[in-house]
Design a protein that fits this description.
Layout (H helix, E strand, L loop, with lengths): L7 E5 L7 H13 L5 E7 H7 L3 H15 L5 E8 L13 E5 L10 H10 L5 E3 L8 E3 L1 H29 L5 E5 L9 H13 L6 E3 L16 H22 L6 E4 L9 H11 L3 E5 L1 H14 L1 H16 L1 H5 L16 H5 L3 H8 L10 H8 L2 H6 L2 H9 L1 H21 L1
Helix pairs in contact: 1-3, 1-17, 4-5, 5-6, 6-7, 7-8, 8-17, 9-10, 9-13, 9-17
């Protein structure tokens, strides 16, 4: 069974599971302004492993926030970036599954499957006119074969994971997303069209797809790349999805998913324009933004809370290679420009908060500190209750930052 995901949805990852109500407050405010957005609490196997949580904890956080607020809108719990090796840990407490098959991109499917892929889609070779695209898509038989060699095995793996989840969920409904974003090369509109064709052939009722877009989506900072090129690609992908839905019988609410979508302020106008132009939906996934707002709130609180943030920065600075290695493809830090912890120790709380807050007009904003701490939540996790008690002690100021960040910097420019 499947659920029907709302037109607009927003993934609000929460490293330590303490900001569910604050995150929901931002979604509620958007609703009061007339825009209905489903909230999706997402957490990955890697995050659970580092923090020491389980998906049951995420479900509990979501349900507590929903009940406390009396929220009647859409909400889901996302098993983020899962595969067959870890999906069992998410089955019982998730109703949204992000099938991550990027590791299989570039690996060839069996030859007979490739031959059938090319044969079944050969009628789409040549020139294909798609409404909304400035130029027709042109694909030769050789190019179609190349697309199959690159993506077909990944789609087959997605089908295997989907069917396994279905077998375990029995009659319980859930939402499926296919993720191909964590790879080196961006998918072209041609790639996306035939990826969707194969997904339809393998009967995966996906409702969102996360392609790799052009440019860099570094953690916690703005988009790095040609904004106009991204805008064209996003617009074209929206049109390709609509065309694929019409031709292949995919779910009518199928939409793009933008991973590492937090803080990508320069591309929000282009996304919003495409959504309005084509009356399209979108899923935007965030994660570490909330954890950074916790650090900002602690910094502003001063005293022991400020000292804790400085302690975390000192540890992160000394463990740079360990903490950054798993995120090497999605951060861009000039290590030589990171301030020495001794310098940071001399800052007052407002200075450190300004360094962390993503305000590019502020002279104190430091994207390198922000990125380093974005991927250093492991340090806070190791402090166990020392960290979580500090969050609880300063929950009012932190919750204000969490809600305002999501509403003012993310939801408002995207949707309002």
């Amino acid at each position: 069974m499947v659920m029907k995901l709302e037109k607009y949805s927003f993934g609000t990852g929460d490293r330590f599971g303490l900001q569910g109500s604050a995150q929901l407050a931002a979604i509620q405010k958007a609703s009061e302004e007339g825009i209905d957005i489903a909230i999706v609490w997402n957490k990955s196997f890697r995050e659970h492993t580092i923090v020491g949580t389980t998906q049951r904890d995420v479900r509990s956080e979501a349900e507590t926030a929903i009940q406390s607020a009396g929220w009647r809108g859409g909400y889901y719990v996302d098993a983020d970036h899962i595969g067959l090796d870890n999906v069992d840990q998410f089955i019982d407490h998730s109703d949204f599954f992000t099938l991550d098959v990027a590791d299989f991109i570039g690996q060839k499917a069996p030859e007979e499957d490739l031959r059938l892929f090319v044969h079944s889609l050969s009628s789409y070779t040549g020139s294909m006119t798609i409404a909304g695209l400035q130029e027709p898509l042109t694909v030769s038989t050789d190019q179609l074969r190349s697309i199959g060699e690159k993506y077909l095995l990944a789609i087959q793996k997605a089908a295997t994971i989907y069917r396994y989840i279905t077998s375990k969920k029995a009659e319980k409904a859930f939402i499926t997303e296919v993720s191909m974003d964590e790879t080196e090369e961006a998918q072209t509109p041609q790639d996306l069209f035939f990826i969707l064709a194969a997904i339809a052939e393998y009967k995966i009722p996906l409702q969102t797809i996360a392609p790799k877009f052009t440019g860099r989506f570094n953690k916690g900072v703005d988009y790095q790349g040609d904004v106009e090129q991204f805008n064209r690609q996003f617009n074209d992908d929206v049109c390709v999805i609509r065309h694929a839905v019409e031709h292949f019988g995919l779910p009518e609410n199928l939409k793009l998913s933008v991973h590492s979508g937090s803080d990508k302020f320069s591309i929000y106008p282009g996304i919003r324009n495409a959504l309005q132009t084509h009356d399209a939906g979108v899923h935007v996934k965030t994660a570490g933004t909330t954890w950074l707002e916790e650090l900002i709130g602690l910094s502003e609180s001063g005293d022991d809370a400020l000292g804790l943030v400085k302690q975390i920065y000192r540890a992160a600075y000394g463990r740079y290679s360990e903490l950054c290695a798993p995120y090497a493809s999605v951060i861009d830090i000039d290590q030589a420009l990171l301030p020495d912890p001794g310098i940071v120790d001399s800052w007052d709380g407002m200075h450190l908060a300004r360094a962390l807050r993503h305000d590019q007009q502020c002279a104190d904003y430091d994207p390198y500190i922000r990125q380093l701490l974005h991927v250093s939540y492991k340090v806070a996790a190791e402090l166990t209750t020392y960290y979580t008690e500090a969050i609880t002690d300063n929950k009012v100021v932190i919750a204000t930052h969490v809600s305002e960040n999501l509403y003012k910097r993310h939801l408002k420019p995207l949707f309002l």
